[in-house]
Amino acid sequence: MLLITIRTLILYTVVMIAIKAMGKRQIGQLQPFEFVGIIIMSEMAAISIQSNAVPVLNSVVPIASLAIFQITITLINLKSEKARGIICGVPTVVVKNGEILEEQMRLLRMNMNDLLEQIRAKGYFNLAEVEYAVMETNGQLSIMARADKRPLQPSDIQLMVENETPAITLILDGQVNHKSLNELGKDEKWLSERLSRHHITSFAEVFYASVDGSDSLFCQLKEKSAQGSPAPIRENDETAPLHGGKGTEKNNNMGGDEL
Length: 259
Prior knowledge:
It is built from nine helices and nine strands. With 259 residues, the protein is an alpha+beta fold. Helix 1 packs antiparallel against helix 2 (32-50) and helix 2 (32-50) runs antiparallel to helix 3.
């Protein structure tokens, strides 16, 4: 049993390293050659896990070879557009100017149910709202809605908006993220002063805290066993709900039961 466990851990580590070396992609974003490579790697690992008679090296070498082969193909795709078209294929238009292209769908082995399902997944429940639909090489459908059906953009009403930057995590489960503080050019003293404005005296009280590009703090305290969690702190957010948190919900539910 111990030998099987050791073999499993070794092969698991090798497969994980190989997949990570091939690049970060979600399953739905894999190209066909990448998907095939992962399946073969999994099968090779399973052979050595299931049978102690098969040396672990007999699986490690093919897995490493496949990873190198996959990386080589990826590099070729980066350098050559022609090779990329042969290996990965090219995007296919299935809806053009609101018209469904039946011939293209037949070439893709795609039926109307498949098309309607992917369109609904993009948030459009009426095919008449779609101007263009393109089947990408990874199997995902990209949609451009009709101009009068797309979500309103600030540019549509000539509204000037400032560029935003992602919020930066400062505290996670009571632990201060010093790397983020250094990026901001701040220190724990600054963070402590910001929290003290909201009567928070210890980093350990904070479940999560971040600051956005406008220097507004978001802070959620840890849940307390008896009182639940208080409403999150949202600085300079006029659209935030006035109440929230499990503690508030419990109190509201209790009040409703009493009535």
